[in-house]
């Protein structure tokens, strides 16, 4: 018998790392997370990955995936549709934190569009797609010594947040006279009800039943937070009050006092099934 049950209330993917979220009614679970999540990456001339940490208005780029095309929208520019890169596309060496790997180049049209929108003097950018022939894994010390794949996410395939934790933060913000924030600030993939405040910290496994098969995630590590939750996804303006408020109660000693919010998870079961809004889940607490 499961320790706790609830439902999936919000479902997001982020096709391009650090660009706008895409809220979905359903998403396929793959060995490296939700389909098309962080499948694309923006790099500079040196192949280094770019995020809102360096360029806050990346959050204004809205990607959508449809019929083997990646559609890009941003203020002040015409929309473009770029076909998925074939395996025969040129490859570029890219870095994501400490990992170096080859990625598929998405071509000059996407690159010129990015340069025109980002407008960073003296710098140029390219869009790349994760090459499925490459292997990238989460840190095994958090995954019980086993391999867990991912694409261009920071370190783990899936991020899980509870409605209760977000609601608790918003209560604190409003007590300070600040506006509440929504889940987009924290870039989760799954948002769950049925949990108490920060109960996701205590979970070991999360299971969904989809078309007769069990889709299972293992929650392995609290998610340390940088300044990205401070960036308003609508204005691209940094609002440091978010981190300041979290620091009052979410600096975890066993995480070297990092501010942590939500949990990182890895895929541990059958894949190919779809997660859907309103789908019930079962979860067990860590022993």
UniProtKB/TrEMBL annotation:
InterPro entries: MoCF_Sase_C, MOCOS_middle, Pyrv_Knase-like_insert_dom_sf. It comes from the Bacteria. PROSITE patterns: MOSC. Residues 133-284 form the MOSC domain. This is MOSC N-terminal beta barrel domain-containing protein. SUPFAM superfamilies: MOSC N-terminal domain-like, PK beta-barrel domain-like. Pfam families: MOSC (PF03473), MOSC_N (PF03476).
């Amino acid at each position: 018998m499961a320790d706790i049950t609830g439902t999936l209330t919000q479902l997001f993917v982020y096709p391009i790392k650090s660009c706008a979220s895409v809220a979905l009614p359903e998403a396929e679970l793959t060995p490296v997370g939700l389909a098309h999540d962080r499948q694309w990456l923006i790099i500079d001339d040196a192949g280094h990955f770019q995020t809102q940490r360096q360029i806050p208005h990346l959050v204004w780029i809205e990607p959508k995936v449809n019929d083997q095309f990646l559609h890009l929208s941003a203020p002040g520019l015409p929309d473009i549709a770029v076909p998925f890169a074939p395996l025969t596309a040129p490859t570029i060496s890219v870095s994501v934190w400490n990992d170096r790997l080859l990625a598929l180049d998405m071509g000059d049209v996407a690159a010129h569009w990015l340069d025109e929108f980002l407008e960073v003097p003296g710098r140029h950018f390219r869009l790349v797609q994760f090459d499925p022939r490459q292997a990238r894994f989460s840190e095994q010390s958090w995954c019980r010594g086993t391999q867990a794949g991912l694409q261009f996410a920071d370190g783990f395939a899936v991020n899980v947040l509870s409605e209760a934790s977000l609601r608790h933060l918003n209560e604190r913000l409003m007590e300070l006279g600040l506006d509440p924030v929504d889940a987009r600030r924290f870039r989760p993939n799954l948002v769950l009800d049925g949990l108490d405040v920060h109960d996701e910290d205590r979970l070991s496994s999360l299971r969904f039943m989809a078309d007769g098969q069990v889709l299972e995630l293992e929650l392995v590590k609290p998610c340390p937070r940088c300044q990205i939750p401070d960036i308003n996804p609508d204005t691209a303006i940094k609002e440091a009050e978010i981190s300041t408020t979290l620091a009052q109660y979410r600096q975890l000693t066993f995480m070297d006092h990092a501010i942590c919010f939500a949990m990182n998870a890895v895929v541990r079961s059958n894949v190919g099934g779809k997660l859907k809004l309103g789908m019930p889940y079962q979860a067990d607490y860590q022993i």
